[in-house]
Specification:
about 400 residues, Glycosyltransferase, two-stranded antiparallel ribbon, about 50% helix, globular
């Protein structure tokens, strides 16, 4: 969509024009917007039309995934594109039109997802999984206040009922505590009664699980995977931001969370190879570029580590995005994501992975919430740490905190 509008602005209206004109290469922002458009369009268009359950395929290894996969797709997608939906400052008219289109679709999507009379009414309370993706949906609304403000009073009431209904689910003694806490953070942010104990338990337990040098355990044990980025660090940061004005008791803890978040962002940036690949370690690798949600979030809130520039993070994440989405088989013939990291690789998916789960990859798009004139987008492309080192550049040493 962005490419078509981009060419139109250049006065290119026919195929024949290409014989005498080669358009400039797309900017990084255009690459990101094209990825957003391709990822979001089938989910939000169908959900807005009350046809998501009818049209979305459900790839997975267990028979129960259709009970959860649609909320997974909506919640995880909104968590990633929420800051962009919240943006009102645009220097490009075609991007503004695209945002307005998806903003309107999102409002309709919320209506159908939370209306018990809709075909696409989603499961928020049966089984354990719904608390996970109710939390991602809540996080998306925390990241996009304008979406929440844009919902009608009846739809808001349905959203609140849906979130409240998820309280019957007991989270696991691991990162899942943060899912319950994120829902309560949503209530706190928007002026509803909230359960302080669900918040306090999750926050203080993760304080106990901090292991050092910017890393938390996933529960009592350490797991070598990307869950510090998929969930733990971005959830802790967003929860603290949402509640701190009302819960000053967490002020010192929030400062510690921020120090650790900055350190982990430095680690994440160094994990990206010169080619845009990263170590294939641990669970949920089919979330693709979602492995870097935390780095993307730190870029969004402009809290990157010292010596890590916004431009080098943009360049690194652009390359990761291209490596994880542009291979054949990433999307099926109708535009839905398929299980894999580099193309279609079904064996990579755990038993809890299904089509909807894969939309966590949208969280890499968080910096689109920064306007195009922000240094993240406006500064010239720059090499990231691994690319510098492996091209012979001398850099300062790395240090633990």
């Amino acid at each position: 969509m962005i490419r078509r509008l981009f060419l139109k602005t250049l006065g290119i209206s026919s195929v024949g024009a290409f014989s005498s004109f080669t358009p400039p290469a797309p900017t990084d922002r255009q690459i990101w917007l094209n990825y957003l458009d391709k990822t979001a369009n089938p989910v939000l268009t169908n959900l807005a039309n009350d046809s998501l359950k009818a049209n979305m395929p459900v790839e997975g290894k267990t028979k129960d995934r259709p009970e959860y996969t649609h909320l997974e797709a909506f919640g995880r997608l909104l968590s990633g594109i929420g800051p962009w939906l919240n943006l009102t400052e645009f220097s490009d008219k075609s991007e503004e039109q695209m945002r307005n289109k998806y903003f309107a679709l999102t409002l309709k999507a919320f209506d159908n997802a939370t209306n018990p009379n809709a075909k696409d009414f989603m499961n928020f309370n049966k089984g354990g999984q719904p608390v996970v993706d109710a939390a991602f949906l809540a996080q998306g609304l925390i990241r996009a206040p304008k979406v929440w403000e844009g919902l009608s009073a009846p739809v808001k009431a349905n959203v609140v009922k849906a979130f409240l209904s998820s309280r019957v689910i007991r989270p696991g003694f691991n990162n899942w505590l943060l899912f319950s806490a994120m829902i309560e953070a949503f209530f706190a942010k928007y002026g509803y009664d909230y359960d302080k104990m669900r918040l306090d338990y999750a926050i203080r337990q993760h304080e106990q699980w901090y292991l050092g040098d910017g890393m938390y355990g996933d529960g009592p044990n350490f797991h070598w995977d990307y869950y510090n980025s998929y969930v733990i660090q971005p959830f802790l940061y967003d929860i603290m931001e949402a509640i701190l004005s009302k819960e000053l008791v967490y002020k010192k803890m929030a400062e510690d969370v921020m120090k650790r978040a900055i350190r982990y962002a430095a680690i994440q940036e160094r994990l990206i190879s010169p080619e845009g690949t990263f170590p294939i370690i641990g669970r949920s690798i089919a979330y693709r570029a979602g492995a870097f949600q935390h780095l993307a979030n730190m870029a969004l809130v402009e809290k990157l580590p010292e010596h890590v520039t916004p431009a080098q993070v943009r360049s690194a994440l652009t390359t990761v995005m291209q490596r994880t989405t542009e291979s054949e088989g990433t999307f099926d013939a109708k535009g839905w994501l398929q299980i894999g990291l580099h193309g279609h690789q079904p064996a990579i998916g755990e038993t809890y992975i299904s089509t909807g789960s894969l939309y966590l990859c949208a969280t890499v798009l968080l910096p689109l919430g920064l306007p195009a004139k922000n240094p993240f987008w406006a500064d010239p492309a720059a090499d990231w740490t691994a690319k510098k080192v492996w091209s012979g550049v001398d850099i300062p040493t790395d240090h633990a905190i």
